[in-house]
Amino acid sequence: MTQQNLAYPVDEVDTVVIRFAGDSGDGMQLVGDQFTSTSALMGDDVATLPDYPSEIRAPAGTIGGVSGFQVCFGTSDVFTPGDSLDFLVAMNPAALRANMPYLKPGSTLILNEDSFVARNIEKAGYATNPLETNELAAYRVLRVPMVKETQEALGAGGLGAKQVDRCKNFFALGLSYWLFNRDIKQTQRWIIKKFGTKPDVLDANQRAFEAGLNYGKSGKLVERTYATRAKVTPRGAGVYRQISGNTATAYGLLAAAKRANLPLFLGSYPITPATDIMQVLQQNREFCNVLQAEDEIAGIGSAIGAAFGGALAATSTSGPGFSLKTEFINLAVMTELPLVIVDVQRAGPSTGLPTKTEQSDLMQAMFGRHGESPLAIVAASSPRDCFDATIEAARIALKYMTPVVLLTDGYVGNGSEVWRVPDLDELPILKTHLVTNPEGFKPYSRDPETLARPWAAVGTPGLEHRIGGLEKEDGSGVISHSPANHQRMTDLRAEKIERITQDIPKTEVYGDPDANVLVLGWGSTRGVIEQAVGHLNKRGVPVAAAHLRHMNPLPPDLKALMLSYKRVLVPEINSGQLAYHLRAKYLIDIEQFNKVEGQPFRADEIEAKILSMPELTASAKLTAKHGALS
Amino acid sequence: MTVVPTANLGLKRQDFISNVDPKWCAGCGCYSVLRWLTGTFPTMGLPKEKFAVISGIGCSSRTPYYVGTYGFHTVHGRAMTVATGLKLSRPDLSVWVMTGDGDALSIGGNHFIHMIRRNPNIKVILFNNQIYGLTKGQASPTTSKGKKTKSTPYGSIDPPLRPLSMAIAAGATFAARVADTDGQLMADVLQQAADHRGAAFVEVLLNCVIFNDGTFSHLTDKAVKQDTTVQLKDKQPLVFGNARDRIVTIDGFRPQVEAYTPGSPLPANALIHDVAVEDSSLAFLLSNMEHPDLPVPVGVFRRVEQTVYDDHYAPKGGDLARVFRGPEAWVEDAAGNISLLGAVAAPATAA
Q1: For the segment B47-74, what is each residue's pLDDT rounded down to a tens digit?
Q2: Sign of the C-alpha dihedral, residues B283, B285, B288, B289?
Q3: What are the beta bridge partners of residue A552?
């Protein structure tokens, strides 16, 4: 879509991948956010990848301090933030150097040339100024004196040199808006809203933004601009917004509580990259109770207390916190209370790479507790899917009276995309096992369909009872050390989780119906697998794919589905945890594809892997009766 | 919503006893706490279902099974977290935590100080027997230095913690101590704890007949307790001794014992107790008084009114759909035409 009065020819494009990169104090996340929301508002689909260091302000100008925000925008084929960059806006030499691996031949580099001075060049680890060698010969290099231009635009205002320098991100944003014919109104409004109380800062940012636009209009950058092609298939009528995965998770909890007619309680502790979930709920305290607890353990402990009192209770965390919550998760398993445990996975082990993504907590969610301790696991596949996956986790927790682990990760948690805002009425009504009738009440009696026990919230007259971590007698719930009872209760807890399969819909398969190879993904790899399989199908490569949301129990049709293919490929951002589980559970061999670089897969990596598989074009399918996969 | 007592419901102590027989050792001090706790509940004007007794792990933490209200036997050291979540979610309940010296001060030390500093309307009874009983006799954080236990065969080398000092330093708005043998004082202290709005912390000096028998006998034996303890009374001097002939005076920051003739005027430097003074220095000083140099105070150390944490938790509800839309949602029609929801007027300064 175009909006500006164009003095230059416009190239129409389907999708563009651009990354804004600079020092972590340069405001690159802000620039990326604005660029993304404007693009979404113009009708483009968007997918974002914020990529920032775990330090707040690592030494300026160094590789370690580079903060980036990548967005893929366009009107078709936007499944991921993009494999490689069409455009890189780099505010300093370090930002250029750190992003070289993501460039492709012909990528356009918009470089803040004022920062390519000896000191910064050296700090970035370059021996010589890359602008003066042929190092960048494969790319289109556009040099822009961003600092000088910003200074000129601001004139002799009241701001110091340091503050003036901090406006250059708005110059870069303005220039990018011109280059891609973005609508400037939304950002103009935003600047006023954000800086309205500080007139000098407001004025400076407005001027810098306009200076960027004007620099483009003057023809100093290039004499062609770009615009995304009009959409072939509109998104459909509705209310839309841009949403991050963590916000969608928080909203999912609010929606689930509303549809279950329960109060919502979140007990949490700050941890990257999950903190936003707590913060979003804190901002909405009129709808929920949020405790920023003294530690991760207290976060889940308080949630269990709230569940005992009849609330929809949740705790949110990432790997290290998930480890700390282990003992309490077991208490929720033993006392069979509904609880949602959100794990926004990050690269581990230990502190690992706190701001980088990974899918490596699946085994921990499955098995990381003492004793025989089954629980349900749900995984979200995209930022907006965090909303639906959270509601599904809450639904299972309430229906089966069990803790449910919701696995998201840093990639979907921090990434964002366009979300159709649902009407609350269209969301499922979540039923609970809350009871009030004292007649015949037994704390550990079982619902015949789900095996859930009754939920007698504290405060209900006549249902006073005691629960705890000691083994319970079947039915009565009193402490029991009987060997036969322990066997029975262990079996019941397992059977209850297994019964969740009755709610799991048929596994959807997409791609080539005659394929020999099934790509089976889970969680945040959905977009990239869909993109890779779509590309290959377009080229006539016969491959199909399916994606898992229910990680425990697994869909009841999964084994038969896998057996109907000659080979199943499981790409995961870990060392093969789902593959390991599938082999163990179904005795089916799995082709693994794994990466743990703190980054999501690129579609081209998955395509290459699929193309390397000998089974891809084998003539006959091998099914169970042929023996190879049974 | 908060705890609202109704008229006398005619409930008796027996109504708060569960149908499970306690499995504590004969002569255990835990029985005493159970007795006076279940004696306090009927006085509170609340029906049974409004009570929740929450515990961690240890002998003391078996208490919920023996009380006929809602009860939760949680995990080691973490009862106060469960209690906090329950109370914040359900301010209408009367929430009581049963814990021990290992549970509250060792594995649960962090939760202890943070619950106290937040001041939720939760009552905590710490059964301090200076030993790990359920694991059969290891040193706890309150075990005396030099004490031989199964885990300290050559005598404990760890300086013991003072539970009340810790609670007061963390900002306890109610702090008290009582011995398991003193039923009358226990009834009084528990009643005051029940009546207090905010976190109430009660340390019970409790005898473990099996693994630490007699650890407090120097403070509880009838023959000596008048000489080794002093019962705190609001606005009163600290006079003690079998013949009421000794008094605690203050020299700078240092409390000391002087002879006193009953009925005579108080010395100018007599220490006068005041439970309601905002500054916690006096309560902290009292919490540091130890045998044998000074009498060990029992009774209420501190009782002040401060903002109750659960008062901050009162979701009112509202238009959730508005939250979901946020400030930047837009409407698309079937043809893909976009209009802003609640669009803001274009800025005057727009280029």
Answers
A1: 999 999 999 999 999 999 999 999 999 9
A2: negative
A3: A377
Q: Considering only CA atoms, which of A577, A14, A392, A311 is closest in space to residue B91?
A: A311
Strands A66-74 and A45-51 come out as: antiparallel
Task: Write the pLDDT tens digit of every residue in B321-337.
Answer: 999 999 889 999 998 89
Question: What's the average model confidence in pLDDT over A438-442?
Answer: 97
The CA–CA distances, whole Å, from B250 to B169, B254, B255, B295 equal 21, 6, 4, 14
What is the structure's pLDDT at A620?
46
Q: How far is B336 from chain A (nearest CA, A)?
A: 5
**Residue labelled with tokens 């979300």:** A419
pLDDT for A4: 53
Rounded CA-CA distance A253/A390 in Å is: 6
**Ramachandran angles phi, psi of A161, nearest 5°:** -60, -40
CB contact under 8 A, A313 and B89: yes
CB A555 within 8 A of CB A562: no
**What's the CA dihedral at A227, A32, A128, A135 to 10 degrees?**
-40
Crossing angle for the helix pair B79-89 and A296-308, nearest 10 degrees?
A: 50
Give the B window 44-103 contacts with A, CB below 8 Å.
47-50, 52, 54, 57, 64-65, 68-75, 78, 81-90, 92-93
Task: Check pLDDT > 50 for residue A624.
Answer: no
pLDDT above 60: residue A3: no
Q: Where are the beta strands (DSSP E) in A251-383?
A: 264-268, 288-292, 312-317, 339-345, 376-379
Mean of pLDDT values over A343-372:
97
The domains found in chain B, sorted by start residue, are 13-236+273-312 (3.40.50.970)
What would you report as the CA-atom Rg of chain B, rounded to the nearest whole angstrom?
A: 25
SS3 state of residue B38: helix
Chain A contact present for B342, CB below 8 A: no
Cβ–Cβ below 8 Å for B75 and A469: yes
Q: What is the structure's pLDDT at B6?
A: 67
pLDDT of residue B37: 98
pLDDT tens column, B157-211? 999 999 999 999 999 999 999 999 999 999 999 999 999 999 999 999 999 999 9
Q: Using N-to-C axis directions, what is the helix angle for A199-217 and A185-195, rounded to 10°?
A: 160
Q: Which distant-in-sequence residues (6+ apart) come within 8 Å of B256 by Cβ?
A: B248, B249, B250, B294
pLDDT of residue B351: 35
Structure tokens at A417: 């995309």
**How close A86 gets to chain B, by Cα (Å)?**
26
Interface mutation target, options A183, A304, A466, chain B, most CBs of B under 10 Å:
A466
The verdict on a CB contact (< 8 Å) between B70 and A423 is: no
Backbone angles phi, psi at A334, to 5 degrees: -70, -40
pLDDT digits (tens, 9 = 90+) for A13-35: 999 999 999 998 889 999 999 99
Query: What pLDDT sits at residue A77?
Result: 76
Predicted confidence band at A55 (pLDDT cuts at 50, 70, 90)?
confident
Phi-psi region of B171 (alpha: psi -120 to 50; beta: other; left: phi over 0): left
- Which three-class secondary structure state does DSSP give residue A466? strand
Domains of chain A plus CATH, in order, are: 10-228 (3.40.920.10), 241-426 (3.40.50.970), 509-626 (3.40.50.920)
Average pLDDT over residues A432-439: 98
Q: Which DSSP string do the residues of A120-141 spell out, in sequence order?
A: HHHHTT-SS-GGGSSTTTTSEE
